[in-house]
Every structure is written in C-alpha cells, then in structure tokens.
Inverse folding.
C-alpha cells in the first residue's frame, strides 16, 4: 500500500500546473480538479449514470458493484460494493484523475486519496433538489456543459410541471402516504430524501414527525394513521431491475397482510411498488412522476412516467427501455 501511495504521489507531482476547475460538493468543500479528467473511479451508481449520460462513460476505469447501468459499465473493474466499502489499494492502482463518491464515503478513505493528490467529490444523489446541480458540476469537470444543461433542463422541466400542478393544493387535498423502505414497516421521517420525494409529489408522509430518520413502525401504528396511499420502495442493489412478477408479488404481499385489511389504501387499491433505481440521481424525476400520478391521478392524467423514462434513456444513452420499474 505504501509503495502504491508513493508511486501515485510522484505521478501527481509530475502533472502539477494543469488547468483547474473548482467544484463545491455536497459537503461544502471546495475541490480543485485538474483538467482534463481522463480517468474516473465512480463509487456511486447514480454518479456513474450521470457520467455516462454526459457522454463520458469511457473515462470510468473503476466502479462500485452496483453501477450496472448503462450495461457497458459491467465491463469496468469493480473496486468495491459502495462508497462505504471500497478497496483503496485497487483505486490507487487505477491512478484516477477524479473519484466520485456519495456521502457514505469514510473520512479516512477520503483523506487517503487526497493525500496523494486525487480529487474526491462527495455528492448526495438522493436529494432531488441537488441532482441538477450535480449534473452541471460534472458537465463542467468533463467539458460537457451543453449536454449537462440539456440533461438538467429535462429534469427541471418535469420538476416544474409537478411543482406548478401541486402548488395550489390544500392540506386536505394531499393524500396521507405510508412509504415502506427496505423491510416490512421500515419507513422514513422528515428531512430525508425519501420524505422529500413524497412532499414534492404532493403527498403527506404519515411518519414525518417520527424522532428517528428511518424508523421501523408497528402495524398498529400504520392502521391508526390510515394512509390513503402505500408505496413500497424495492431496493435494487445488485442489478438494474426486477422482473415484473417480483414487483407484483411484493404488492400482493402488502395487500394480503391481515392487519392492513381495513386501511384505506388497501381497500381503495392504492398500493404501489417502485424500484429504487428511480429514487435517486438523474432518474429520480421518473420516481417523482410516478408518485405524483399515484397521489393525484386527475392532475397528472396526461403524464405517462413510462414514456418519460423511455425518452430519458433514449435521449441520453441511445438505448431502449424494456424493463418495468413500477407496479401497477
């Protein structure tokens, strides 16, 4: 490890004097990135998706194991499971010009990389209000400002549609929502990205005032709060999508829970399943549109989230979308 650090440090010194761009990342650190960036290690799947959407996928030389979209990324060497569990020696051996991570990155790992001159951007890809800023920042770093503006504009256009149509809603017009996360009755409270998605789509999170960010609540608590809508986030950690029958079985399991039989969402057929791939990064706008349509079907009757997702994938990856990401 020491020899790898020394070798990288000498290589870094030889490149001093290059043109530089300064980016303020999610942690509010000013990060100086020497240009041009030619080798990227991406420890976050949403980061990898954005880099590829900006036409710079060939620059990714190392990735987290969850970075599997677009499919070309599966040919890139894996340097760890996530920002939290990365192999520093492998990363240093790849000699990246830039490492992009999410907020799970440890301070020790960041300092290890910075000590040999590797710029590290730590970003939040689950905060919908931050996504377009990340897109534009990466466009600046990669010399793809115009394409970044196109992608950010696509996202902001639909964010504006949601904002405009839900702006005049009173509290009674906003459905009560129970958002179930990784496991049964695991949910989210105020201040989290998942909560923000519910609010931005015009819903009221029944767990907003819970004292823990991600509490596990009791079935009785859900029954007492009687949500109008239940949404289950299905977490994709090893692949890009779930078969439709997996989404259907997940929904069937929820509606068949005896304790929920009297809950309004179950009685009215308003139980939905959403892939986590549409819950973060540039595709979080797709998740927002699904939620908005489920919460306010009359307001968003003309919006088809599937078509929006197809357009996004075709426009920025040149690919067709054949998988299912929500049910029903």
């Amino acid at each position: 490890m020491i020899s790898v650090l020394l070798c990288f440090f000498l290589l870094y010194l030889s490149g001093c004097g290059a043109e530089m761009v300064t980016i303020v990342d999610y942690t509010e650190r000013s990060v100086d990135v020497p240009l041009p960036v030619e080798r990227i290690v991406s420890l976050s799947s949403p980061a990898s998706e954005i880099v590829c959407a900006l036409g710079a996928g060939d620059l990714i030389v190392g990735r987290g194991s969850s970075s599997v979209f677009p499919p070309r990324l599966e040919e890139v060497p894996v340097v760890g499971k996530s920002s939290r569990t990365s192999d520093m020696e492998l990363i240093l051996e790849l000699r990246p010009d830039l490492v992009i991570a999410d907020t799970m990155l440890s301070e020790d790992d960041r300092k290890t990389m910075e000590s040999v001159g590797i710029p590290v951007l730590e970003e939040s890809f689950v905060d919908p209000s931050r996504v377009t800023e990340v897109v534009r920042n990466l466009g600046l770093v990669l010399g793809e400002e115009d394409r970044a503006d196109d992608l950010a504009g696509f996202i902001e256009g639909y964010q504006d549609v949601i904002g405009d149509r839900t702006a005049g809603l009173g509290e009674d017009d906003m459905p009560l929502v129970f958002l179930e996360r990784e496991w049964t009755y695991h949910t989210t409270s105020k201040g989290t990205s998942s909560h923000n998605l519910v609010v931005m789509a015009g819903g009221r999170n029944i767990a907003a005032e819970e004292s823990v960010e991600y509490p596990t609540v009791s079935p009785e608590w859900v029954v007492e709060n009687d949500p109008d809508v239940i949404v289950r986030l299905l977490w994709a950690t090893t692949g890009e999508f779930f078969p439709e029958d997996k989404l259907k079985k997940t929904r069937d399991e929820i509606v068949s829970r005896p304790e929920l039989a009297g809950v309004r969402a179950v009685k009215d057929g308003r139980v939905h399943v959403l892939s986590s791939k549409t819950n973060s990064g540039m595709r979080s706008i797709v998740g927002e549109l699904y939620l908005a349509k489920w919460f306010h079907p009359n307001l968003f009757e003309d919006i088809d989230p599937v078509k929006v997702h197809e357009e996004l994938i075709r426009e920025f990856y040149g690919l067709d979308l054949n998988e299912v990401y929500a049910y029903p």
Residues 14-150 form a domain with the Rossmann fold fold (CATH 3.40.50.1980). The first helix runs from residue 2 to 14.
